[in-house]
Structures are given as structure tokens and as C-alpha cells.
Amino acid sequence: MDDDVTERLQLDAGSSVPLWMQLFRAIEQAIVEGAFVPGDRLPTERELSASLGLSRTSVRTALDRLERSGIVSRRQGSGAYVEQLPTPWAWTMPAAASIFDPDDRQGASPLTSLVIRAGIEPLPPMVAAAFGGRASVGTVIERVRSVGRLPALHVLNYLPQHLHGVVPELRDPHASLYGTLRSVAGVRIARVHRTIEGALADKHVSRLLELEEGHPVVVVELVAYDTDEQVVDVSRATVRTDRLRITVDSGHIDLTGVATPHHVRLGATEGTPE
């Protein structure tokens, strides 16, 4: 195997991160940086094992995960080949009341969702407080959102218990939460408050987003209010920023000195669908 490639795939045997995960991330990063381009054949399982001092099992696991994520394809008797990675997509969260949901226009978002947990559960104390202490249980929806087959977002939504009826509609991978609230429950979002901060991925999130535990992530916390100023959604979205980059558009200042609604954009590629 080429020495330059070997240098790019340096692993840390003393790390607590499994070696297969380190190899998975190293190959993914090498592809992002252009060391491998679409159509290139990766070093074979045997070559990777010998040059990096890894077991064949660790190498095979890394290649399996790369294939499942759509980063490489494997051809019988030929090896693993680099696929064309999805380009970064724009996920706009406008301040305008009409389109708060990142994919409010059904089918417009490149993000797909997989519901991994949904039900009536006890609410964390801070969430219960946001709902005014009116209830100790609510509707909890946990999703992983992906660009293509690449997991990019982990989202936890907490809704009042009486809105549990939206869950079946959200099994559709292209469904919009706020669009579903509007169509199923007649709930319209009037305003939101967001907090954006850095964090470290915990064990659960890192597994779902294919990251090492403790890897830096961005967390977007949101509280959404309906037209009666009642809290209808408290959410926490963990963003893998190498798959969805974040930019902020502060809007324009008109002649009265009032700023137009700003946008927070995840995925900064100009011209991509919002």
C-alpha cells in the first residue's frame, strides 16, 4: 500500500476509540480531503490489515460500515470503491412563522428521518418546566436524520401528550414534524427560541452519528410556541458538522432600522434546496 496513504490512515492503539471506528473515520476523512476520489479502489482488506497492524475483523468491520453508509461500494472479487459523497445540503431554519420546520415543505428537504423511539414517557424536569409544569409525561420522539445514507443529525422532540397522534405520520422518512402538527392536530407554530452551543458527543449519540465518543458536535436547542403562546415542542438536535455545516444569515436592515427575520442554515452550499 502507498506510504502516503498509510500516513493518512494513522491510528492510535492507545485510544479508547475502537480501532475499526478509527479506521472508518480515517478513510472517510481521507475521501473528504481528496486522497481518494470517486471510482478509486481502496487498499484491500489484507493490505490494510498488514500495513496498519490491524486484525482482519477490525478492517472488515470498518469496510462494512463504510459500505452501509454509502461511502464505498464493494464488488465481489474486486474490492471496495469510493462512491460520490453527497454534497452539503442547505437546511434553513427561518425565523418567519410560516416555515419553522427545516423541511416544512413536504418533500423539499434532502434530509430523511428514521424514528428510533416514540411514545408517552416521563419528561425531563427542564422540559416539564418549559411546558409550565402542567404535566410530568409527554410525547417523546427520537430520530436520526441523514443526508443520503450518512447520519448527520440526532433529534429529540418533546411534545405535549395529547399530540401523540402525529407519531404514525412521522414514520414517513420525508415527513415534516411541524407540517404534520399542522395537518393532523391543527397546531401552527408562531415563534421559536433557539440556543446553539458546542458539546461533546456522548456514547449514545456517537454510535448513532458514527462518531467517536467525546467528538465535538454542535447542539441546537429549540422551544416552539403556537399561536396561543403555548409551548408545543422542546427539542435538542445534535449536529455532525462535517456532514452539515452551520452558517447564520442575520437578514437585511430596512430603512426603519428593523432587521428582517434571520436564518440559521445548516449546510452552506449556495443554491441547494432549503
What is the CATH class of the largest domain?
Alpha Beta
Ranges where pLDDT stays below 50 over 5 or more residues in a row are 93-107, 261-274
Helicity, in percent? 10-25%
The domain count comes to 2
Shape: elongated
Largest sheet: 6 strands, antiparallel
Number of helices: 7
Category by helix and strand content: alpha+beta
Strand order of the largest sheet: 4-5-6-9-8-7
Look up the CATH topology of the largest domain. Answer: Chorismate lyase
According to CATH, the homologous superfamily of the largest domain is: Chorismate lyase-like
DSSP summary, beta strand count: 11
**Percentage beta strand:** 25-35%
Question: Which sequence of SSEs, written as H and E, runs from N to C?
Answer: HHHHEEEEHEEHEHEEEE
Radius of gyration: 21 Å
Q: Kindly state the mean pLDDT as a whole number?
A: 81
Walkthrough of the structure:
The chain has 274 residues and is of the alpha+beta class. The chain has two domains: 3-82, Winged helix-like DNA-binding domain superfamily/Winged helix DNA-binding domain (Arc Repressor Mutant, subunit A); 91-266, Chorismate lyase-like (Chorismate lyase), CATH 3.40.1410.10. The protein has helices at residues 3-8, 19-32, 45-52, 56-68, 125-130, 177-185, 203-208; strands spanning 72-75, 79-82, 91-94, 111-122, 137-147, 150-160, 189-200, 216-226, 231-239, 246-249, 263-266. The strands form three sheets. Strands 4-5-6-9-8-7 form a six-stranded antiparallel beta sheet. The protein has a three-stranded antiparallel beta sheet with strand order 3-11-10, with no helix packed on it. It has a two-stranded antiparallel ribbon with strand order 1-2. A hairpin with a 2-residue loop joins strand 5 and strand 6 (150-160). Helix 2 crosses helix 4 and helix 3 (45-52) crosses helix 4 (56-68). Mean pLDDT is 81; it is low at 93-107 and 261-274.
